[in-house]
Amino acid sequence: MTLIFIFINSAKRLYLNWDFKDTLYIEVINMMHLIDVTNSYRDLVQRQLAATNSQFVKVYSLGNTTVVYSETADKIEIVMENHKRPIRQDEVEFVIKRLIHEDRIYDITVDKSRKIISITCDR
Q: Which InterPro entries did the record assign (predicted)?
């Protein structure tokens, strides 16, 4: 079996696989990663902690999308922001899966241009 992969973009890889019957099938695998960049946003974190009732703030990078995760005593809020392009649905699903670990009920607020998305849920 021969495995050939081609990079489509930073978020996905395209695998072309030859199976034992000499047929070609294509498999697209998401390669998204949340990178903790909290130390680079020190001023933002300090302002968030001082101005709100947030007890915990983390900042992540998802390519060009910045993800701000904050917790209060009773809720979790995630804000996704991308100034260059609209945020894709698979990015929203990935962030929900990674940062809201349980099956919780959450509210999503999307701006008209899909460049800022807010997700809130009870803790």
A: DUF1827 (IPR014959), LMG18311-like_sf (IPR038226)
